[in-house]
DNA sequence: TTGTACGCGTTATCAT
DNA sequence: ATGATAACGCGTACAA
């Protein structure tokens, strides 16, 4: 059967196309009686408005892009997507997720992006854009909201986790537990795409200094530069090797993420080091796996981040004021079984 | 700056709109020289084709819907999405994910769905549709591909995991390990939305029978009916209580999913039952958490499922033959630390 | 409150 | 190979 158009409905209902349009969208003034007639006709013809045609006529696409810096099946991204969708979906928006993994793709993406009016807004999750990309973005009229992006300047609004707050809490915990030598363990960070994790490294150093740790007592251990992505276990092996060859072996470590923390715990135990008796470990994120691994960690809530981003998109789109345009989510320490007070004999 | 239209490009390049359209899409015959001219003009004007206008004119929306039965941040759904996106994205399609959690929503969704031509295809993941929904779906001209749906009849193509193969492998493993009394543990299954897990229950019973287990030696334990979703630990507590009050306590169990398995293992250990020495546990899915928990499980690969679904969508959309329209993915047993051969003294 | 008529930016058909 | 022009299906001033 050929799809019914608004004209068919108008004819069947005995009104004009304009009236059908108004009745079906429920915005403009239409007599209840007329509306009923129209709805009955639409129902009989199995008709709903075409999003495409509406978009073309109105200039609103009712679509928002979610651009992620990693795959959509990663814990963080999947949660942000769910959050964004939860608030934008019911409002009639489609959200089309997409992701970029390397710099080349990024360039291509942004070179294409701003030219065509294919979305009403864009939310950018977890990565840094270079000047070119920012310029392209700015040249669009699309409202932009950032999620967990270091420099929020090029966004109309942004929401992120407070990595500094988180790392400070982690370091303070370790100090409270009596650990005098601590370390931060992370992957190699290419400088062309800056992630949240690089902030964590910085934050660790600041927190250590502020809490009275000397340079020698707060080490940062990063993986060597590598082209392809290391498996977490290979990464952990490398990090633990570096850790164990330190002049003064730390008694506690903070890892860049839960994934890294868990792999490191495993590797440490394979080396017959007891966690937490010999060494305490703190992760970052509180992803599903953290609970299973009984890992002490810093919680961030990407689902709520996504919802908040969705709300900000809505405000931007509707011109309602966004009470704080820029927000950061407080981090929460989650105490589990991989941290313990340093035994007296070990101090 | 006002957005440039195809007319502006045509004027600047000194050709007709039609030629610009042809040149930019790269499909029809256009002289290389003309194409170059057009591309230069488009570039200068910062122009790309509007997806909306193209869609309206061509009837192709270049959009495919992904409809999931649970939230998008669930392991399975997130992976399917990633897979679908990986193959459809590079072909120029947007994929708009959406999800439905209860029956009411489902009805509303399908009542709206087929009427407007807002997507070129739909992929439906992980749930059963009732007759009404199927009819609505059929009344659309949209190609439909199913992912992990029990009855594939209403789809043009489908791909799923082979739950039967998986459960048979699990049961055979337990038999090989010498377990003579086994059980299946699962949540309460409302009958209005049938999930993959109900298949697993069936499969367990069949596999048990075929492998020589009596009725008394192969128990199925399900949670009591409940309105709200139980937390996994509450569920596990209930299941373990039922398990421990069985006349003949099994020495091995299969759980509906990894999540349930892990919660059950935890509960068992809290009851001072050793896993696997006292009781073996097998999960289902091989999600991230399974590895962390060192859980023996049946692997399914939703990422590959999604990719395959994406390929089928492409075939359907292009009219190329889909070599098998219906496929099922073999399940693979992953041996880890929660299963062990039944000690001789326990037999 | 309702109807008329034009425009949204492209594709597709038919000439040339 | 290229150009003119009619759809595509709806939103929206403006008029009634």
TrEMBL record, chains A, B:
InterPro entries per the UniProt record, alphabetical: HTH_LacI, LacI/GalR-like_sensor, Lambda_DNA-bd_dom_sf, Peripla_BP_I
SMART domains: HTH_LACI
Record keywords, A-Z: DNA-binding, Transcription, Transcription regulation
HTH lacI-type domain span: 4-58
UniProt key word Secreted: no
UniProt xrefs under Gene3D superfamilies: 3.40.50.2300, lambda repressor-like DNA-binding domains
GO molecular function, one term: transcription cis-regulatory region binding
UniProt cross-references to Pfam families, sorted A to Z: LacI, Peripla_BP_3
Protein name, per record: Transcriptional regulator, LacI family
Source species: Bifidobacterium ruminantium
